[in-house]
Each structure stands twice: as C-alpha cells, then as structure tokens.
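User: Can you predict the 3D structure of N-acetyltransferase? Sequence below.
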Amino acid sequence: METEDDWYDAELMTQRAFWNKHHLGCDEHYLVHKIRHHEDYLPELSRIAVKNGQVVGCIMYTKSRIVDGEDTHGIITFGPLCVEPKWQGYGVGEMLLRETMSLAANKGYKGIVIFGEPDYYPGIGFKTCDNFNITTSDGRNFDAFMAIELAEGSLKGIKGKFHYSEVFDNLPKEEVEEFNKRFPKLQKLKFPGQWD
Ligand SMILES: CC(C)(COP(=O)(O)OP(=O)(O)OC[C@H]1O[C@@H](n2cnc3c(N)ncnc32)[C@H](O)[C@@H]1OP(=O)(O)O)[C@@H](O)C(=O)NCCC(=O)NCCS
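Assistant: Sure. Here are the predicted structure tokens for N-acetyltransferase:
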C-alpha cells in the first residue's frame, strides 16, 4: 500500500509512464493526485510496486456504478495503471493486476469495468462489455471498454449503463499545468499514434 512518503514518486513515475503517450504531455499523474483525496477512492485495493526502494508501478481503484433503470449496482474500476518505462514488459503490470484483483475478489466485489488498452487486458482475462450486457453511460460498446468477473458468474444479473467516478471528469488543463511545476520539466512532443 502506498504511504504519504510515496506520493511524489508515484506521481512522477505515472507522469513518465504516460508522457506524450496518448496526447501532448499527460494528465494521469494529476489524476493519481486527485483520486487520493476523492470519496470514491479505494485505497484498500490500490497498490504500488517497489523495486530497490523505487516506485516502479502503480494501480489506483475507485468506486463506479452500473445503472439499470431504478437499480444501481456498485462495481469497481482501476486507472491509472502504469509501470516505470524502463521496467515495462517484465510482468510488473500483470503482478499489480493479479494481486489487486484477488484483494477485490476476497472483499466480495463482483467485477471490474475499465476503459483500457484493448490489446493488453484480454491477456489477463478481460472481455469487452457487450459480453456482459453493460454499455457506456451513453449506450455504446467498443474494444477498449472491458470487464472481468471476480468470481465465476459474478456479473450475471448485472446489466445496464456504466458510470465511472466523477474524479475522472475534472482535470482542467490549467490545473495540470500548475501541477506539472512540481516535477522536472519534460518536453511535449507530437508522435504518430497519439489520439489528438
Ligand atoms: C500497460 C502497462 C501497464 C503494462 O505493464 P507491464 O509491466 O509493462 O506489462 P507486463 O510485463 O505485465 O505484460 C507484458 C505483456 O503485455 C504486453 N503489453 C504491454 N503493454 C501493452 C500495450 N500497451 N498494448 C498491448 N500489449 C502490451 C507486452 O507485449 C507483454 O506481452 P507478452 O507477455 O506476450 O510478451 C505498462 O506497459 C504501462 O505502464 N504503459 C504505459 C501506461 C499505460 O498505457 N497504461 C495502461 C493504460 S490502460
């Protein structure tokens, strides 16, 4: 589990892992910072990976919901999940996932719903949400929208629209820029494959 002494290192590592990956720069390190103080944060499931005293990985969990008319089912979501660039591909991401999925299963959570890399998570057992009759809040399904059951059949009977925590929606650019001043300056660069 993360302690306050790890906060800066986990944010710095997250910034390095996501920098220029999907956009110019990134905001995931600020998201990590915001999640910790949000009511939907689940610290009991969230973990960091540490090697030789350095934070090399991080996974953060939050509460989310599946809404089916009058019925609301509590569910969980993780993100950011990331690994220090030079340690990627050595199984740290998978270790963080398997450890925390087992913690969540033991605490009785039924399933995890995420937006994530469609090529990475199926290897861990995630399936697209159309397999579970779960859609996004605006009724869509696509490859990056995935879920996993935490016990056999545990998502049976749960269907509806997925709503993630509001903490993901509130990352104004100016706040991210201000937050970036806490870390060594990194250059924003445009690469093919970025979303915008
Ligand atoms: C995605 C990420 C968390 C995976 O962690 P990791 O420790 O590097 O991954 P692991 O070592 O556990 O797994 C490695 C396997 O996943 C594959 N993999 C890693 N990242 C991948 C990606 N983005 N897309 C597809 N496959 C990926 C590797 O090719 C490898 O496959 P193999 O076992 O068949 O060789 C990490 O690479 C990372 O932090 N990436 C940048 C941030 C990010 O994109 N986070 C996820 C957002 S949804």
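The longest helix spans residues 92-106. The pocket of coenzyme A is lined by residues 17-18, 21, 81-83, 88-94, 116-117, 119-120 (CB under 6 Å).
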